[in-house]
Amino acid sequence: MSGVTAGTRAISPYAVFDRASWRALAAGSALPLDERELASLKSLGDRIDLDEVATVYLPLAGLLNLHVEASRGLWEARNRFLGDASAKVPYVIAVAGSVAVGKSTTARLLQTLLAAGPGAPRVDLVTTDGFLLPNAVLEARGLLGRKGFPESYDRRALIRFLSEVKSGRGRVSAPLYSHSSYDVVDDATQDVDRPDILVLEGLNVLQAGRRADGRAPEVFLSDFFDFSVYVDAAESDIQEWYVERFLALRRTAFADTSAYFHRFADLSDEQARQTALEIWRSVNVPNLRENIVPTRSRARAVLQKAADHSVRRVLLRKI
Ligand SMILES: Nc1ncnc2c1ncn2[C@@H]1O[C@H](COP(=O)(O)OP(=O)(O)O)[C@@H](O)[C@H]1O
Ligand SMILES: CC(C)(COP(=O)(O)O)[C@@H](O)C(=O)NCCC(=O)O
């Protein structure tokens, strides 16, 4: 945990919860999903059961419900003060972390748990991969091997999307990405129409961003976040999950002849392991070290996962 030592007393911006104390925060709350629904939410390779949902994700959703309700209360008070009658804009929750760390499962679980919360809010989920530049553009710019790095996204479009959602605009379109074709999908979009809550999931959501002239941008993506969650794990564990997932994808998604990775479908176990390690080491590790881990301290909550995917500790920023 990041902390500063002052004299003999360690001070830290986080309140730290072990599994037992975190789980106790949702004692008495019913789990609004069963094994079948959980199976439909979890990503390939993620190990998660209902007990883990009750221990980690239910208390997190409970805390987020409090934040969402408090934000609504503040909005109403503000409207009364200003004599303004504008509608509440979506509450935005960012989910960040490495490739293969389990962001998608976390984001989908939060979506489901929050939607079952007080007042049954409408919760939309958008992933930032839709804002990746098309492969043709990445190739022309020599960036195909940098997919997931900040420069591989249309960050302006992402900021525009979020600023429109946060301005209360209806039917804002987000582009979509296909892991199968390994490219953004032509002419397919997802509409976000004033949900109560928007979960935005992606590698780089907590990044400050860079401008070509090196100056700091005036608007950061995080200016639009109400809360953020960083899914964290040891690099060696994430590497193992990435390789295992690659081996599993070889038997599933890669078997599709139209899949970009179909060329890897017939590799032997050892060849597939080496190929996965090569992609991991050349693309995902540098991105993790240079661009993702440095954003962890910006998150309001950090979920620290152990090698078996279970969350060992939850860190919550005190401010
Ligand atoms: N080549 C691929 N083919 C099909 N699905 C993939 C491929 N790579 C990743 N995925 C799926 O895409 C989703 C996002 O993966 P990723 O960005 O690594 O984030 P995370 O593992 O943190 O959710 C996961 O559900 C994963 O199983
Ligand atoms: C599509 C991704 C960049 C993730 O994008 P995100 O939704 O986090 O913005 C990532 O899953 C990816 O494909 N990385 C490229 C290297 C690799 O194939 O593992």
UniProtKB/TrEMBL annotation:
The gene is coaA. Keywords: ATP-binding, Coenzyme A biosynthesis, Cytoplasm, Kinase, Nucleotide-binding, Transferase. It catalyses: (R)-pantothenate + ATP = (R)-4'-phosphopantothenate + ADP + H(+). Transmembrane segments: none annotated. It comes from the Bacteria. Gene3D superfamilies: P-loop containing nucleotide triphosphate hydrolases. One of its GO terms (cellular component) is cytoplasm. Residues 92-235 form the Phosphoribulokinase/uridine kinase domain. GO terms for biological process: coenzyme A biosynthetic process. The keyword Kinase applies. This is Pantothenate kinase. The keyword Transferase applies. HAMAP family: Pantothen_kinase_1. It comes from Trujillonella endophytica. Its main location: cytoplasm. InterPro entries: P-loop_NTPase, PanK, PRK/URK. Belongs to the prokaryotic pantothenate kinase family.
